[in-house]
Structure formats: structure tokens, C-alpha cells
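Tutorial, part two.
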Amino acid sequence: MRTPIIAGNWKMHKTIAEAVQLAREVREAVTDVSGVDMVLCPPFVALAAVEDVIANSKIGLGAQNMYWEEQGAFTGEVSPVMLQGLCDYVILGHSERRQFFGETDEGVNKKIKAALAHHLLPIVCVGENLEQNEAGETVEFVGGQIKAAFANLSANDAQKVVVAYEPIWAIGTGKTAEPADANLIIADSIRGTLAQIYSDEVAQRIRVQYGGSVKPNNVEAFMAQAEIDGALVGGACLKADSFVAIIKGAL
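Running the prediction step on this input gives:
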């Protein structure tokens, strides 16, 4: 059995004070929750403050990105060494990073390897755009992203990675993939590709989230699907009540 994982990607939202308040509200609301891994991913500037709030709780902490080098003249970047010991997870390859900041499959692979080398658990995002979806290219495109992301990773390291399937056309748009369709894409493009790279046994151990306009009123439908192990939540994680409702809907 794969443990469900619900992660909230706050993106570029919340001041430090607002982040502390939100983290405090979530912590207080999930004290009795078990059976699901919970992760908050605030902006870099709020990581330390949020870590203080959720210390000694069941909630994990994640960063939204990192560079693969340990140090150097890379203005504006944050290294895995800086995150090590501060947070548990790191989101890598989000479609917004790919779209707005030119991230490539090769760079995402380097980041995954660097994260694992520094004991950080990657949440690796894959997903197609609307044009690819409508052209029937989803299976091939997402499978290619998986092959690139997991290139030269051992089976042991691969099982530490969480994959987030986020169809780009569903992120922040209010549109969602049909749960059964998302389940099929995950089964074919993601687990099927992972089984080709490693084995079916390894593929079945890797957790795969769905992301893209996940809300309290649809999370149960996604979680009812056999291949979906959680959600990477965007806008709905910015309010404690909706994020907690999503967490509880995953049980």
C-alpha cells in the first residue's frame, strides 16, 4: 500500500507573517489526522518561519525549487545544501518553471539527482499542454518526461521520488482532468514507463499525485482511482479550511 501524500504549493503567495498564520491554522486542524503524508511548500523566504511552526508535528516541509550546484556564482538560486536539514521535500520541474524560466528535462534530471544526494525527497512534475492533449500526444509526451526525469537513477533512488501528474491546461484554470482519464494516463504514461525502466514492482512503489485545480469537492473522486496516491494542490492550499478538507478527503 502506498501512503497518500497531499502537498500544498503556495507558489508566489504569502508574506512571512501570513505564512506563519496559515501554517499554524493547518497544524491545529490536522493534529488528529493520520494515514496521509502532509506537506507545506511556502516560498523560500518563509521556509524557516514555517519550519518553526510545524516542528514536531506530522506535517512535512517542502521547497518549491532548487538549483543542482552546491554553491557558486548563481545569483538568486538556492542550493540543496541550503535546504538540507531545513525541509524534507522539494518540488522540481513544475510547469511554471518550465514555461516561464526555461527549465529543461535535462536540468530537472540534474536537480533530482542533487536533491537525492542531499537527502531531499523530490516531487517531480510532469504534464502536457492543451494542444498536446487534444492532439492525442499525452501518453508519448508524459512518458518522455518520465524517461528524462529518471535517467540514470537507481531503482532505490527512484522509489524515493514522488511524481506529480499535472496537465498544464488544468493548472489554475478551474478545469480538471476526468479522474478516470487521469488514472489511465498515470497507469500508461507514468507507471508503464517506470515499469519499462525498472520493473513493475518498482513502478508500483512510486507514489503519483494528481495536480490541477484540485479542490475539496473533487479530491475524493481522484483519490478513489487506483493509480492516484495524492494531490499537489495549488490555489486551494492558500486557505487552511480548504487545504485541510482536501487532506481529509484523501483518507
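The longest helix spans residues 179-197. In part three we will examine how such features are distributed along the chain.
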